[in-house]
Specification:
The complex is a heterodimer of chains A (111) and B (116).
Chain A: E1 3-7, E2 10-14, E3 19-26, E4 33-38, E5 45-50, E6 56-59, E7 62-66, E8 70-75, E9 84-92, E10 98-101, E11 105-110
Parallel strand pairs in A: 2-11
Antiparallel strand pairs in A: 1-3, 3-8, 4-5, 4-9, 6-7, 7-8, 9-10, 9-11
Chain B: E1 4-7, E2 10-13, E3 19-25, E4 31-38, E5 42-49, E6 56-57, E7 64-68, E8 74-78, E9 87-94, E10 106-107, E11 111-115
Parallel strand pairs in B: 2-11
Antiparallel strand pairs in B: 1-3, 3-8, 4-5, 4-9, 5-6, 7-8, 9-10, 9-11
Classes of the chains: A mainly beta (111), B mainly beta (116).
């Protein structure tokens, strides 16, 4: 059974303190791994899609990387506005290409 | 603005009542999905519609029914609401075109449902 596990569940950083979020997955034949950001009371907002091991993508202070077993979301010099829940998901080809989500990492960045 | 629209945004039901959650997208997407999100559980797939005229069960379909009314609209119905269905419900849609950064996989803003 395909599984997506995110760690840590919660992370508290001071402004400017860089860190990484982890997403490990067990799927038979990865077709794509997604990162989303979710703010309280809102729907998930797309950040990145990674398709193959070694791929990297960047957006402002965020950088996503992918290996054969896991993905990392690196946050460089975070700001309070980066506080949110970050969700990782993989394709489910057998379910109409729905997304199989991890439980998320809740990030709090304090001034 | 283009995207996925869900109604209502909030709803309180009594146990045993029925209701329909509405979802519409204006991006000409073929596939649509219903998820529920509970604290500590992440998002779980309830039903999906890979294309107009088809629907299939996801991970947690019990207690729900769906209708793909046309290409734009995908509704979720609770026939007899139970407290266990208290959750936040998200609708999403997806393009079949890989050139879109994420296949255009877009979520609505959610319906917060409480069953008492």
């Amino acid at each position: 059974e395909d599984q997506v596990t995110q760690s840590p569940e919660a992370l508290r950083l001071q402004e400017g303190e860089s860190s990484s979020l982890n997403c490990s997955y067990t799927v038979s034949g990865l077709r794509g791994l997604f990162w989303y950001r979710q703010d309280p009371g809102k729907g998930p907002e797309f950040l990145f899609t990674l398709y193959s091991a070694g791929e990297e993508k960047e957006k402002e202070r965020l950088k996503a990387t992918l290996t054969k077993k896991e993905s990392f979301l690196h946050i460089t010099a975070p700001k309070p506005e980066d506080s949110a829940t970050y969700l990782c998901a993989v394709w489910q080809p057998n379910s109409g290409y729905a997304l199989n989500f991890g439980k998320g990492t809740s990030l709090l960045v304090t001034p | 603005n283009a995207g996925v629209t869900q109604t209502p945004k909030f709803q309180v039901l009594k146990t045993g009542q029925s209701m329909t959650l509405q979802c519409a997208q204006d991006m000409n997407h073929n596939s649509m999905y219903w998820y529920r999100q509970d604290p500590g559980m992440g998002l779980r797939l309830i039903y999906y519609s890979a294309s107009e005229g088809t629907t299939d069960k996801g991970e947690v379909p019990n207690g729900y029914n769906v209708s793909r009314l046309n290409k734009r609209e995908f509704s979720l119905r609770l026939e007899s609401a139970a407290p266990s269905q208290t959750s936040v419900y998200f609708c999403a849609s997806r393009s079949a075109i890989r050139q879109a950064p994420n296949y255009g996989y877009t979520f609505g803003s959610g319906t917060r449902l409480t069953v008492v």
